[in-house]
Each structure stands twice: as structure tokens, then as C-alpha cells.
Input
Amino acid sequence: MNFAYVINEFLRSPKVVGLSRSTRYNLKHALAIAQEELGMLAVEQIRPSAVQKFLDKHEAFPGKQTLLRAALRSLEEWAIVRDYLPFPITTGVKAIKSKREGHRPWTDEQIALAIKHSRPHIARAIMLTVETGQRGSDIVRMEWSHLETFKGVLGINVKQRKTGRKLWIPLSVEFAAELATWERRFPPFLILSPEGCTYSREWLSKEWTLQKAKIAELANEDITFHGLRAAKVIKLRLEKKTDSQIANLVGMSVPMVTRYARQADQRQAAYEAMEKPLDNVVRIKGKT
Output
């Protein structure tokens, strides 16, 4: 029995089939790479040394390497108790720690540029993400019927795909007015492609990558849709919302709020540390 057979059986298993679409996509993508490079080996040959050698080939891409290791660990957990593998294959295996500090939050200027220069459906997706702070997998599933007014405030009901958590997210007066100008089409999602097709998170991300490349000021910036989630947290922190309030508004844990807001905390702390913050700085037009 070769390793490719084990991978195929794992991908057909209820464990994988029951995963969210985005998680399943990432898992299949990672294991496709593993299958191409390790698939023809017999299962007895898939030892930690072979897996480490495989990961080392991708050391130039720490994020990708980490994803590959996680996928193989998930497969190992499923396969070893079903006798598809004779022994553990990831024990002691290491991946290079990524130097990336997480998804980079967008600046106000970047958000404004993206909205101004993007195609309408992409601009709307950006505005909706900035307003709600939700993941792309939840943005593409928001429907008009999810809107609900509570005590005179328009909000949107969300059931987070990743956590299963149910939220009601209040919308600002400005965004509610913007939303009123959007055309309602079928399928009844807030965000649809120009052809009226329903987006997946992966499709929306790919469209943003293509769109970003056409915006000169943003083409070389490392900004993703998930970075808008971080931008929302920072915005709320600068509005003096508590971590607990932010956690309720965007549906994340308090420790995660702290992690997302660390850049805003540093900027604010540095500003407040100045003896005369309003007198001793040179202000650049358009910057704060």
C-alpha cells in the first residue's frame, strides 16, 4: 500500500467531508502537494525523516510549510488508529517559524483607495468586511434576510462558519444608508459576482488579488481580506471600546482581540508617552 492510497482514503473519510469548505479546501491543497512528492512511497517508507525532508523543500515558504505539516498531522491522527500507517510519521518534525506577524491590518487610506478603485462587487465586500469585522467565509454567506432591527438599530445576524457562534452585529447609520443603495438580486446574498453568482471565500480572495494588482498604490502591499478584520478591531480599540465589548461586536475571544489590537496599542502608547503630543510633532497632510 502506498502513501497516495492513504491520502485518498483520508480525503474521502467523514472526518474530512464534515469540515467547512475553506478548511477542506486548504487540507486538500496541502495533501495534493504531499501526494505528488510522497505518494508513490510505500507506507513503511513514510517515516519522520522522509516527512522532514519533504518539508525542508518548502522552507522558503514558512506559511506553506506549516500548512503542510498540519495536514500531515491530521492525516496521521486519522490513519494510524485505522492501520493505514504502521507508525507515527510526524513525531519530531519541525517547520520553520514564520516571520510574518499575522494578517496585516489595512490603513484607512488603503481601505479608501480599495473602495474607490475596485469593481463595485469587490468594493461592497470590502465595505461589508470593514463594517462587521467578519471572516471572508461569513461575508460571502450574508443574506438580506439576515438583517434585523433591534431597539431601533439595524444589524445583521451572523452564524460564524468557523466557530458556530451566533452574533447580532449593529451597523452604523452611515453603512445602513450605503446598504440601502445596494441592488437586491437572487440568490439573496449581499455580495454576488457581476454575473449574479454566489462567491466562495477562495474565489473572493482571488478576485481581490487580481483587483489589487490593478491599483498602483496597493499592488505591492501585503493586504488580504482577513486584514480587514484586524483593521476593524483596531478601529474599535481606538474608539476606546473595551476588549470585552470588541469581542462581542466581532465575535472573537478577548485574547484574540488583544493580539489583533497590538499595533493600535503600540501607536497609542507611543503617542501618549510624548510630553507635548500636539506641539512637538510635525504633521504630514493626510497622515495621523
